[in-house]
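A further point concerns the way the authors explain their paired sequence and structure data. For illustration, here is how one protein appears when written out as sequence plus structure tokens:
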Amino acid sequence: MSIKQKKQLFMIEAINKELEIAGYSNTYEDVKFIEDWFHKFTMTTEQCESWKKWFIKTAVERRISYNKKVAKTEFEWFNLNYGLRIADSKHKGHE
């Protein structure tokens, strides 16, 4: 499998993990055709930190990223593009 294919599979897995950590039963397959889906779902700051730790650890372990520093930078870009909105309230609305 090429590195490009590995990165594409990792992207889908990262989105699935993000939704799982945020408490949704949706997957990438469920949301990929929803315009701006990442703005329609929310997660807490704590959930985002948990997802970030998973992303960095997994990216390095699977050699998607060269090292932890690169993985952190890649996470920041990935989160900027696909990160759920942060809503740190008691009443998190699921859509």
In short: The chain is about 60% helix and 5% strand. The radius of gyration is 13 Å. The mean pLDDT is 92. The chain has one domain: 3-25+37-86.
